[in-house]
Input
Amino acid sequence: MSVRKISVVTGTRAEYGLLYWLMKEIQSSNFLELQIVVTGMHLSPEFGLTYQQIESDGFVIDKKVEMILSSDTEVGITKSMGLGMIGFADALNDLKPDLMVLLGDRYEIFVAASAATVARIPIAHLHGGESTEGAFDESFRHSITKMSHLHFTSTDTYRNRVIQLGEQPDHVFNVGATGIDNIVRLPLLDRSEFQKEINFQLGKRNVLVTFHPVTLENATAKKQFQALLDVLTEEEDIHIIFTKANADTNGRIINIMIDHFVSKNPDRSVCFTSMGQLRYLSALQFMDGVVGNSSSGLLEVPSFKIGTINIGDRQRGRIKADSVIDCQPNHSSMRMAISKLFSGGFREKNRSVINPYGVGGTAEKIAAVLKDVSMESILKKSFYDSNMK
Output
């Protein structure tokens, strides 16, 4: 059996954290050869040059594809996508992988999928079939699904949705969410170690805030995030850990507002461009809840038996645990959500909450398929129409 070259693409700090254990599985396999292509925010000083974390974790980066321009406007991001297409054309021509692994729905990943399609490189897609109706990631995700040949979904509902899009059922695998592996396998920091690591003292009440722009809305980020900051200002005894927004349209305004809030409230707030998976997951052990509109609040946070306040429409359409509180992006709705988050009845109910995204073991399941699946004629897909069966 010949060794398969598996090219894993990562463009953000969060995405790398979700891919970490799969990369480890591929790296340790006698039948798979790991190639790593780094792009997007990993290569940007503004977002922490997080490719360095990948290297410090013991991985070798095979290609770096520069594509992030110093602009978060629609024009700037579209031009970044064009640069990425050029870069991926060269990278794939040099690496010539047998299979490319892509996760999620960001525009960097859409670009990589487009280049791989033209280069006739099969694609394995993770976290397809999901829905985020408030972001243009929704369209990118489903487009990547149609360009992909193997699919690894996080729930049976999402597996069925990928099949509904015409993908062959025997190439669609429900393996659970990749992020659960980190919770199960990473030795997390204790409270004292964590506080020392982030140089910040937790309080009696603590929340972690991650808020991204809703990219299918026109310039709502500033107004919505200010409403959240106003609520947090009123809750003077809550200590807050902020993680900054991604390189999305209007993301920079959120980051400027975070910096301003922290400068005015240094004793009860701290912010990070990138926490990394270890510090982020360690933080969740000591939080009363997570506030914002990040997918992590729905996929991973329920495993810690704490609440998530999910603001607005960015994650609309995703499957949610009972620990998720949906609220509108306005002051009064957020105030009610904060009250519920800290209520005794809600906290008690969360002790028995079940995470719909699984219990771990995802990386091993994916690696086993990558090793054993037949690649013969995989590029020529037939549309699966269940109505015709």
About this structure: The CA atoms of residues 327 and 336 lie 8 Å apart. The chain has two domains: 4-175+361-388, 189-350. Residues 189-350 form a domain with the Rossmann fold fold (CATH 3.40.50.2000). The chain has a mean pLDDT of 94.
